[in-house]
Prior knowledge:
Layout: E1 7-10, H1 14-26, E2 35-39, E3 45-51, E4 56-63, H2 70-85
Amino acid sequence: MAACDPVTYQGVTPQIFQSVKQELESNGFSVPGTSGTIRGPYGIVIDYAWDEPTESLFIHVIDKSFFVPCSQIHNQLNNALTKFTA
């Protein structure tokens, strides 16, 4: 099990956050509230915190299976955000 580099996304409005939250939940992740720990498939554990006033979303993959590269997780997150910001 290993961690990935943390990532911070800017410009995450309430509408974008809710949309990304729903997208992640449809992919097997439970996203409780605006901050906390998400446990998903393949041993993925993510700490996250969304700050509404600054519209920033901090994400840190703190654990995952070695079968799943950090790049794949970050790509999925990037795709989810891009889907709702484009």
